[in-house]
Every structure is written in C-alpha cells, then in structure tokens.
C-alpha cells in the first residue's frame, strides 16, 4: 500500500536532487530518521536504492544536455566503487561494524560538514583558482590523484551512511576543478557518479533484508517525476540561493540528528 507521506518526501527530495545533484542521502536519510522514526540501518539501506533509482531517472536528462564530465566520473569511480564494495563486504562479514548509535551520529556529522562546505564553496573555488594559476602543472598532476582519493572517502561514507556522494562530492570537485567544472556540469557529473556507487553499496543491505520495499516504492512514486522536472530546470536556474537554503536545512537537520 502506498504511503503518501513517503511519496511527498520523495517528491521534495527528488526535485532537489535533479536541481542540485544533492539530497539523495543528505536529505532523505535524515528525513527518514527524524520525521518517520525509521531505524538507521533501514533508512540507510532504503535510501541507497532510492538515490540510485531516482538519480538514474535524472541522469538521462543531464546526459542528453551534454553536461556529464566522464573523465571526472571515471576517476571518482576508480576510488569509490572498490572502496564501497570492500566496505559492503566487511559489513556482510560482521554486522557489528554498523552500530545504531555510531551510525546516527555519523550521519549527523557528515550532514553538518556538508552544510558548512556548501556555504564556503565560493571561497574554496577562489582559493583553488589562485593555486592553479600559480602552479598549473603541479595542480593538474594532483587533480587525478586527489580525485581518486576523494572517491575512496566517498565510497566509505556512502556505504556506511548513504550520505556523501552528492554533497561532499560536489564540494570536493569545486575545489579540485575550479576552472573546468561549471555548476551545471557539477550537478550532472555528481548524479552519474552516484548511481553505481549507491547500487554497489546497497547490494549488501538488500541481501541482508534491510531494505523496506513498500517504503521505497512510495518514495519513488514521488521522486521520479520531480527529479526529471528538477533536472530540466537545472540549466535555467542559478544555484546560489538554492545552495544557501540547502545549507540552512542541512545544518538544522544535522544538529537535530546529533542533539
């Protein structure tokens, strides 16, 4: 049976994902924890599949617009996919790795870091551009290495908390590619990167029976139409005020989860 409250939450999150590339984990997981009282492991497990399927629907729109930077995606995958696979394997071998109290706090901390990162993103870009202009060859050499390393970190975060692929990844790419990646390319690239990452991270939870299928269907009924709408609007709307509003929401949610 469809729960329309879940559908409404999915519609809101789907629109934000399509518009900004952010929200699969940073918004949906805290919403499930705070407003619906879902257990952390079930929230993470269900949200991983919610994010994968929702972003798959939005990715087609962004790909058709030619905004996906495939070189950056492949570098991120080189780090995130193996690390997410390893993390899922470890979880399947010993469920005690994911403790409820630790998981809830981990989600709150990552969401808070994300909120701060979004607020200081313009300063990070300015600092990165200054460094690249001074030492362009060295900066470019480090780009590939640091992108793969960022993928490693994101793989762990997403596999354990479902948070990180969009929000933390976006802040990282803004710093690493200040002259190359535009806001529209950033959204498209992060959405495409997150799809297989969420699927791999979600497989372990799926086989362990932690995914709530009825809740997932209710969420997707709302998110799939709105992520397409948000993706089509992404190229027409500036992300500045959206970033500020999202930062406030994330900071509030993060503090609520921790306190």
TrEMBL record:
It is found in: Cell membrane; Membrane. Its main location: membrane. GO terms for cellular component: plasma membrane. It holds the Pfam family TauE. It comes from the Bacteria. Keywords: Cell membrane, Membrane, Transmembrane, Transmembrane helix. The chain crosses the membrane at residues 5-25, 31-54, 75-95, 107-125, 145-171, 191-208, 215-235, 241-258. It is a multi-pass membrane protein. Signal peptide: none annotated. Belongs to the 4-toluene sulfonate uptake permease (TSUP) (TC 2.A.102) family. This is Probable membrane transporter protein. The lineage of its organism: Bacteria, Pseudomonadati, Pseudomonadota, Betaproteobacteria, Nitrosomonadales.
